[in-house]
């Protein structure tokens, strides 16, 4: 059994706030129930009642009914019924306007079920309670703490006031890091450093992005990453010993996350973890094959799916009797629906198929592939993308990784699929589905450019100087050279591309050669110029 105080410590701002608590916060909470005012108004002792479909004073009947039933608390949106709750003898909580009811229910039910399963420790905290640990870390560091798993899902967080930044606010409301911020953190190499091993990673404040200063540490079991602890600096600077405390916390949390992973879990979650572990190299192919009933020596293939933003809200014609289409703009919910959709389609094709979400993308593993399966898998991917577009009202891109000869090489197929998705995004690929064969040139060029970008010593310093000179003098030479090279030296085609006169193209190419000293008559130098200037 847990208390209302403990549930509130778990939820906290920005999800819920206490309006009134006639019997204090120590009242026991034994269950979480959802109450619709249009249904019979009933509650039982110890219930945390979530009143949906009624705001403010409209929730008064539900509040009175909860009080008559002995409920511990009532949660509503737009709460203005403090006097009603006080008269009914029940605590009243107000839920943030942006919060989703399913998020509030999931968090609260998690606390209640954890207390029911594990009991309470002598200190009064639920055994293995990550929220209590997050609050302890916050006290030691002087910051705002959140704990995430390796898929960037928020597992727990400390209480906070008004000093939360946009990254933390969206992460808590969405139960996972928002994709646009995750992409920036990946670009800055933050996750690579966190998963490389122990140590503190520092992220500077970026006011223009809504990010305050924070420090982070990876949670590891040996070399295996388990999650991350983030500490955001609030209104006051972090304590002098914040980094030492964070390092200790990352070590102390490892057993908690290991225990959480070994607890019994639903079949779907187990299968998601199997695929994520296989693709990230944390589990051998034989173990996965044994669990799903597949042959590890047979060919396999990975498909990757990315979910785009929802389409415009549908409008009804005046007088039309049809009901409005109800659609959630919550990316988390739509992605969960996409996972279920993909799981159904892929399981129909291969009984042992696995589906999981990693880093915002949905991956499907197709093991035990028969010979000449290319056409069937392509048709499957197209069907999934089309069905998702219809039912989720959002574009879905599907990328086919290469077929690998055995299950142990599934990570290579996933890498192919990731590169295909990246090429589709960069090249504004018109179709929803593509295979490696479709975008091989774009993928290979991207990898060559990535290598060239990471190896300054093999670049031509003359071209580096040309790019710097052009930046300082209007940026007209490099585009002209690239257009000329892309047109195989056809000055008129390059001029049409740039919407300038052919003589202007000729002049700018000659001027670029003079500034850089590069000989554009040399094929090798032309090729290097075309590659390096694309950087």
From TrEMBL:
Q: Where is the CdaR GGDEF-like domain?
A: 284-422
- Signal peptide extent: none
- Specify the species: Amycolatopsis rifamycinica
Origin: domain of life: Bacteria
Protein name stated in the entry:
Transcriptional regulator
For this protein, the record's Pfam families field holds: GGDEF_2, HTH_30
Return the similarity comment: Belongs to the CdaR family.
Q: Which PANTHER family match?
A: CARBOHYDRATE DIACID REGULATOR, CONSERVED PROTEIN
Residue ranges annotated for the PucR C-terminal helix-turn-helix domain, each copy included: 477-535
